[in-house]
Amino acid sequence: xxGISVSKCVLVVGATSGIxxxxxxxxxxxxxxxxxxxxxxxxxxxxxxxxxxxxxxxxQLDMNSNxxxxxxxxxxxxxxxxxLDAIIFAxxxxxxxxxxxxxxxxxxxxxxxxxxNYTSITKMVTSLLPHFLKLSESGRPSLIVTxxxxxxxxxxxxxPNYCATKAALxxxxxxxxxxxxxxxVRVVEIFPPLVESELHDHQGTTPALSKFWMPLDIxxxxxxxxxxxxxxxxxxxxxxxxxxxxxxxxxxxSEKMQKRQxxx
Length: 264
Fold this sequence. Notes:
NAD(P)-bd_dom_sf, NAD(P)-binding protein, SDR_fam, alpha/beta
């Protein structure tokens, strides 16, 4: 199956830090020399990124905008970059919630985490699919890449809502890929383990986690290798063992269910 190396223009959502930034720069460095559109909220970080190459383009985007703004943003994006044929959803937030103390649960924060990690992605996919399906009709492949987590497979109880959002995105990715069979639009899912990032800084857990997380450069190399190979599912590090034990074969069964449902 075609991998990221055939993509002409790649949008990386959440490219201002961490996994998103590292993937954007690694994909930009591929021999195929794609244009990479880096998207995120922080304009100053976007400006810093695009100064390094004329194949890096900035696109300011707030994942927590309402559905009308997200839809118009995707339409503007396609107008500015009609060659867009891949999107990587690398944005995400993570919060600690202790339901033994329900009175301390910030429901607004919980809803924000759900929207950032899951709901907004489904809205953006819906808005971009007409463009990708049009490319498909002309014979051009396109990619939708979601980044979930090993915690989508085995949840970490200290971040229950984060795990639920990533499990939802995983399930959505499998179903979307099954529905898009027969088109040139593919859904690829990356499962990171615990990876070096800014995700945990606000929790105060970074010093402890940094003792055993996967270095960002090692993760990035493994993830990009999978994207170039054209893998549909790309578990990395500890996620490989969890994927093999609990997830292997589920996608194939989902595709069979989709075919039965559609009468094929």
